[in-house]
């Protein structure tokens, strides 16, 4: 019986820790470094996310901001801006994907640096 349960667990789709929807095998997904690699996170933890969820994180936050205050799933989920995205994406089917644009605030900040 334990072998059957283990086999069933391997067949079950992963769950995206950000939006808590299943990640079907054919869905676009990627691994997110909880601490960005550029900030020392190369050998620290990663989580598998829907690609749209991963893109939403990086469209909203800089590497520095991710490293300083958003280096775990709960911090990401509780951020008001990302919480709004999560509420929206939860209404979509598990395999849903759409292009993600950088937020206006991030675009402006990036232009101000150059």
Automatic annotation (TrEMBL):
Region (Disordered): 23-45, 93-114
Keywords tagged on the record: Endonuclease, Hydrolase, Nuclease
Record GO terms (molecular function): endonuclease activity
The organism's place on the tree of life at top rank: Bacteria
Residue stretches of biased makeup (Basic residues): 30-45, 103-114
Protein name, entry field: Restriction endonuclease
Protein's UniProt keywords contain Nuclease: yes
Organism: Devosia rhizoryzae
